Every structure is written in C-alpha cells, then in structure tokens.
Amino acid sequence: MPLPPVLDCGIPHNHAMHLLIPFAHCSSEGCDMALRTLKLPQLLKLLSSLAPQPAEQSDPLSLSAPHERALAHALALPLADGMIPWAAWQARQSRAVGGAWGFITPCHWKIGSQHVVMSGSALPDFSEQESRALLAAMQPYFAEDGITLHYQQPTRWLAQSDLFHGLPTASLDRAAGHDVSLWLPTDSRAGKIRRLQSEMQMLLYEHPVNESRSERGLPSVNAFWLSGTGALPPELSPVPGAAPVVADSLRDAALNEDWSAWGQAWEQLDATQCRALLQALQRGETVQLTLCGERAAQTFVSDWSLREKRGNPRSWIAAACGLAMTNSLNFKRSLVNLFTRPQVKHFLEPL
After folding, report:
1. CA distances from 144 to 102, 149, 161, 164, 193 (A)
2. Are 243 and 12 in contact (CB under 8 A)?
3. What is the CA 131 to chain-centroid distance, rounded?
4. pLDDT at residue 339 in the model
C-alpha cells in the first residue's frame, strides 16, 4: 500500500467489478462495539448473494497486511512477506528504470518515556514545497549509503538502491499507530536504515520546515518510514484488467481507532461502492468482493450455479457445504447462512 497508502500505490484502477475493502474489521474491542450497531444493508445483500472463497489467514505480526497481499495476488506480484515490491511497481508506472526500490514516507513519531509511536494519520497540511525542502536536506545523507531519493508526492517519495533487494520491511499500515520498535527492519543489512533514522531525527529537529510547522501548531516531521521494498521479477508483465478498485475510506479512522468515524465511513461506503457492486451483480455481471482485516482476507465471487440451486434447498446446501469444507472459516459462515439470519458481523469479525 503503504500498500499502498491504501492504498494508493499508484496502481491505476480499471473498470473490473472487483471491490477490495481494507480495514473492514480490526482486532479491537472498540471496533467490535461499533460493529454491533452498524447498518450495512448493501453489503449484507452482497454477502448473501456471493459465494465465499477460502479465506487467507495472516499472522497479526506479518510485515505485509492482508489487504496488501490480496491486492498483490490480484496483480500477480511476488507475495514474500515484507517484500511485495510496491515501490518498484510504482516506479514502473512512472517509467523509471528497473532495480530495487522502496517507499520513503516522511512522518511524525510520538516519543514517550517507554515507547516511540508512529502517528496514525498522514502529516496534516504538509505541502509539496515543505516536502521537497526536506528531501533536498536529506538526500546527501541517503546518497552516502547508495540510496537515491525521487520526489513523488508530499507524503511519499521513491528511493532506489541495491540495498532494497530482498530486504523485508513492514508496511506503513502495520506500523501506523503502534510502537515502531515492533516493526523496524531486523535484517542484518538494515543497520544503515536505522543509522539514517537516527541521523534524520537530529537533522530535522531544527530544520526551518519544522520551525514553521511548530509556529502553526502542526506536528513536526521528525522521522521517515521505509516500506514497499524489492524489485520486480524480470519476467513480470501486467495482468490485463486485474487491478481491483481499492476502497480506502476506512483506513484513517481505523489506524486512529476512531470507531465512530470508522462506522460512519463504512455506512457511506455501503451506500456508494457496495451499492454499485450490488447493482452490477443484479444486472448479471460477474463481480468480486474482497474484505480484509488485520488477520485475514476473504474474497466472495458471483457464482450463478450456486445461486440457481437456492431454489432447490438440498442441492444448494450440498453446493454451499462443498465450498465451506475448503476452509473452517467458510464452514462456519456457511452454517450461519443456512441456519440463521445472516448478520454483517458474522462475516467481518473473523477478519
């Protein structure tokens, strides 16, 4: 994303009817409480009409978030944890040369007595002029370690270096809002990155950009985050019509644990993009829906043979259970659909 900020990894969206929703659920008591009163009628209709595919489980401490893995899978990108080459993919969209790339994200770390926590929000009012000024100040230090910085947008730069070949790094979506010590790269080659982070904290402390931001009551830019590292395989070619539409409207509220805003964003998403996907399904189009949380991602597809069998309960039950047995999570959901009135939480909580 980050997987791009979600996910804005520069991947051009197409008109394929595949909707991917990151942060559909989070492992938080506040999220579960918000989910209890959430009204998502369009999503429920979709989930009641689509066939579940086997869920892909993820370790909560994996470097790549489930939504990133789901998007990478759709694009036929390498899936190694922490090494999905999002920056290299973005560089290709910009017609840059090959090699290994990474994203550099200017950010704000909240430094406490025991923990250093990355802000869950993007830097507010961070202009292109400020971003370019900081890049110019930081570039010589990166260049000493063989890293070349390229401006892309205020809150994300591209970086090119052989150092990024096979270097696992945590997604910004994993680190945001958390203690950064849990997510800093631990590879033996990451010593240069850790040293650069220390040097940049000293460089940025009294930089004119931060003095101006302090006068305006804005958080300082006191750190950077490296993510999306790796190189594209030479044989990789774009997958026609593969890129899902990524609905990123839940991201900021989830990372900041603002569950009231998260619920409101979900209801808006339900009334717009989920409604559009449902209308496409009702027109007989082939659609896909991928829901992603912190622990898993699951795709639901239009399966007309299964839908036709619903007129014959025995054949539909056999077909549904045939899908369900491929995965314990699907099995639980199929039982819910068969013997109870389905609720959105039954689909979202396991994520």
Report:
1. 17, 12, 11, 15, 12
2. yes
3. 23
4. 52
Say if 145 falls within a structural domain. yes
4/86 Cα distance (integer angstroms): 7
> Rounded to a whole number, what is the distance in angstroms from the first to the last CA of the chain?
18
Residue-wise pLDDT for 142-180, tens only, equals 999 999 999 999 999 999 999 999 999 999 999 999 999
- Does a structural domain hold residue 22? yes
Amino acid (1-letter code) at residue 13: H
CB neighbour list of residue 167: distance below 8 Å, 6 or more residues apart? 83, 100, 102, 185, 187, 189, 190, 229, 230
Query: Are 133 and 252 within one domain?
Result: no
284 and 341 share one domain: yes
What are the distances in angstroms from CA 12 to CA 118, 134, 197? 28, 28, 31
Among 231, 264, 287, the domain-final residue is 231
| 301 and 191 belong to one structural domain | no
Range(s) of the domain holding residue 224: 86-231
Examine the fold and report which residue of 197, 231, 265 is the final residue of a domain before the chain moves on: 231
337 and 298 in a single domain? The answer is yes
Q: What is the pLDDT of residue 87?
A: 96
Rounded to an integer, what distance in angstroms lies between the CA atom of residue 300 and that of residue 17?
Answer: 12
10 Å CB burial of residue 336 (0-12, 13-18, 19+) is middle
Show Cβ contacts of residue 22 under 8 Å, excluding neighbours closer than 6 positions. Answer: 3, 6, 7, 65, 66, 67, 173, 246, 247, 248, 250, 251, 292
Q: Label residue 57 exposed, middle or buried (CB < 10 Å: 0-12, 13-18, 19+).
A: middle
